[in-house]
Specification:
about 290 residues, alpha/beta, Cobalt-precorrin-4 Transmethylase, domain 1, Methyltransferase, Cobalt-precorrin-4 Transmethylase, Domain 2, 5-stranded mixed β-sheet, 10 strands, elongated
């Protein structure tokens, strides 16, 4: 055991460029009694690039074994330093660690952090979109139905939205986002952040969808989407359904669809685009 204060340290690792590693991380890798790593092989590779030697116990710590590891890690953290690291960035941010932190707090085991690189904040800063208020929503749902429901949920979100998406699903996600949120909704694709081939693509969702489909973008991708124009909280599903019915009633009475949508949206304090997309989605297919 070393002489450092016992407890758990959440340590951020580089998201691309190894030189972004902090001195705190380097010291932890050399001196921690236990290092719980999402991928032990990748951590050893990082340590080699940093020129540091790992002397403590190195164990795997990922989504499927996190809960099974909690009790033993807590016990080790009572008398030694347990460093928790993910493959890239800060643990817990769409990575393992939450169950351990909750259990440590409940058990009175100290928890601290060695902060550092973050794909969320790096993409946000480079996006060119408002940074004063933003929301991080993890990974875009994989299943088509869940993705559609998620897009409907965030359609009226007034804050800038940051999400992770797999490169192979990016074009499909952008195409559906353009259809449901509007092709002109501003967005940015942050690809391979801090790596030699880092690329930031900015534009409307429709434009980015076309680029993603044409180029088959690869690598680690963070997607940033601008907030809904006009702001305001999204309507509850039952309220939105009622508003769609009201639009259809006005259309049946002779009003134009866009005119009816604008009128109902204004009265409800809802984004016109959000309501228009809901009306189209509720209509039977061809």
């Amino acid at each position: 055991m070393n002489s450092k204060v016992p407890g758990i340290v959440l340590a951020a690792t580089p998201i691309g460029d190894a030189s972004d590693a902090s001195q705190h991380l380097r010291r932890l890798l050399e001196t921690a009694d236990v290092i719980a790593a999402e991928d032990t092989r990748r951590l050893r590779e990082l340590a080699a690039r940093l020129g540091v030697r790992i002397d403590g116990q190195l164990i795997s710590f990922y989504d499927h074994n996190e809960r099974a590891r909690v009790d033993s890690l807590l016990e080790q953290a009572r008398s030694g330093v347990v460093a928790v690291v993910s493959d890239a960035g800060l643990p817990l941010i769409s990575d393992p660690g939450f169950a351990l932190v909750r259990a440590a707090i409940a058990a009175g085991v100290p928890v601290t952090c060695a902060p550092g690189p973050s794909a969320v904040l790096t993409a946000l800063a480079l996006s060119g979109l408002p940074t004063d208020r933003f929301a991080f929503d993890g990974f875009v749902p994989r299943a088509a139905g869940a993705r559609t429901a998620w897009l409907d949920q965030v359609a009226a979100e007034p804050r800038t939205l940051v999400v992770f998406e797999a490169a192979r699903r990016l074009a499909a996600t952008l195409a559906e986002a353009a259809a449901r949120l509007g092709p002109d909704r501003p967005a940015a694709i942050a690809r391979e952040l801090t790596k030699p081939h880092q690329e930031i693509l900015r534009g409307g969702l429709g434009q980015l969808a076309e680029q993603a489909a044409a180029r088959e973008l690869k690598g680690e991708v963070t997607l940033v989407i601008g907030g809904a124009p006009g702001g305001g909280a999204p309507a509850a599903p039952q309220d939105l359904t009622a508003l769609v019915r009201e639009v259809n009633r006005l259309v049946d009475a002779g009003a134009g669809l866009k005119q009816a949508t604008a009128s109902v949206a204004a009265a409800a304090g809802l984004s016109k685009r959000t309501l228009y997309q809901a009306v189209l989605a509720a209509r039977p297919g061809p």
